[in-house]
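Hypothesis: this fold can be encoded by more than one sequence.
Test: take the structure tokens below, design a sequence, compare later.
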């Protein structure tokens, strides 16, 4: 697990792409800005030495799709900024879908705690008056 979300890497690459840098220069700048992201630094070094296709195979699970898209953009000559923007949009859509799925499961996850917290109070509210009258009849009234 990387210390930073991949979206931060993509935003830095997007800034580099919009300033006119090449794919490798933008990737190297992103790795220089994020020294704690070791996987990115390793991929940037490998991409500089052996090319982006070699970096794709060596990248980790989280970074592999990003490097693959960057390599595809470099190979096809597609605008880097558009490619990175699409990757950011895809990442945001995935995050939104994950959060929506989590929000949809919230009622089911809250059912047990809410039931366990409300049930004793409900039982007391419903049965306490009858139990008090039964005990009052057995004991014979309060003074």
């Amino acid at each position: 697990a990387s210390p930073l979300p991949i979206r931060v890497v993509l935003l830095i690459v997007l800034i580099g792409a919009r300033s006119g840098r090449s794919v490798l220069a933008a990737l190297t700048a992103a790795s220089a800005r994020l020294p704690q992201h070791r996987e990115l630094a390793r991929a940037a070094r490998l991409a500089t030495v052996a090319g982006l296709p070699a970096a794709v195979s060596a990248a980790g699970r989280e970074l592999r799709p990003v490097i693959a898209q960057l390599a595809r953009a470099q190979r096809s000559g597609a605008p880097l900024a558009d490619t990175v923007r699409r990757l950011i949009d895809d990442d945001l859509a995935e995050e939104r879908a994950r959060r929506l799925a989590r929000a949809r499961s919230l009622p089911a996850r809250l059912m047990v705690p809410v039931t366990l917290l409300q049930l004793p109070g409900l039982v007391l509210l419903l049965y306490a008056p009858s139990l008090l009258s039964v005990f009052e009849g057995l004991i014979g009234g309060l003074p």
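The chain has two domains: 6-104, 106-143. DSSP finds seven helices and no strands in the chain.
Hypothesis status: open.
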